[in-house]
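Q&A FORM
Asked by: J.P.
Topic: structure of SLC13 family permease

PROVIDED:
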Amino acid sequence: MSPSTITLLLLLFGVVMFVLEKIPLGVTSMIICIGLVVTGVLDVKTAFAGFIDSNVILFVAMFIVGGALFETGMANKIGGIVTRFAKTERMLIVAIMVIVGLMSGILSNTGTAAVLIPVVIGIAAKSGYKRSRLLLPLVFAAAMGGNLSLIGAPGNLIAQSALQEMGLKFGFFEYAIVGMPILIAGIIFYATIGYKLLPNHEAGDDGAFDTEKDFSQVPAWKQWLSLIILVLTLLAMIFEDKIGIKLCISGGIGALLLILTGVISEKDALKSIDLKTIFLFGGTLSLASALQETGAGEVIANKVIGALGAHPSPYILTLVVFLLCCALTNFMSNTATTALMVPICLSIAQGMGADPRAVLMACVIGGSCAYATPIGMPANTMVVGVGGYKFMDYVKAGLPLIVIATIVSMIILPIAFPFFP
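REPLIED BY: S.T.
REPLY: Here is the structure written out as tokens.
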């Protein structure tokens, strides 16, 4: 059996097991990871590289930074301030999505979500609303906000690099032509119809996010220092390019400072790390690597696009590219999906004599629609444990958002980025 066939079979196994959830998500991920090694598709180093991926380091660091905000009671204080202004659950959801969406446009969407997840859990604790109803809108808004600027998500820059080699480029806020209407439509959706689709679970496994504690004995300096270090960590993430320090390193420095200053103990810091998230994300990154290395991802892409014939309608091709990227990105990272699809899309555009910007915009926007699975983007994975989510929660709440994004994109893309300008 060829490596690409084995990879596709393990992808199928993963999809089925993630949906049925007969075994824990993290265990399914590890079966796939180890299966790829045992069958010889990947070597050990490549298969387990996900566990030292920069996003995993970022997860660990931000779990500790968030944990400190909870251990000191500062998250509850912040929650109290926000809930004074947002009087209903719907208003809270709108406020969270607006703030997260706009921040993700100028920051890393993963970094934004990582910083604000503990704050939103604090808001849920203070307001009495279920955190499971607030955290999915948060991570969806982070994904949508990534399409507001050139630096919102790594996939945006991959497409830009490919265009620059051809003497073309996207403007800094050009992605927002499609991205902003999707964000607005998404916020309206979850404030109205989608509100009923949000899961209503009790608090999940939350480690340090324990909302029943009495914080009256915690010194004020610890509370304020936890917030100051969080803000400084966020600022370091905003100015990542200026200071030359990666997101994960900024997060690591913040986490170390909190432990060294005694704001959070080593024991509580370790307790705050959600291992379910680490195994789920680290394990499934091996599948993304296998899809790329064996060419299995390219096989899927070429089969779908090849089925359209030699001279497909530009509108149909845009829709197919968009939907294919949507499908792939829910099981691979959006960065990996964009990296895989960009060269394929460019060759299609050149073959048809079409504007490559039109095809690549469809590719990037479609590649950001990772709403329907807990492994589609790092932020989705981060809230699995704390939100008490199941795989189908993402499908029920996220699939309609993919439909909305598709409809909005198919209206705007042909007008703003015509195939044959």
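FOLLOW-UP: The mean pLDDT is 85.
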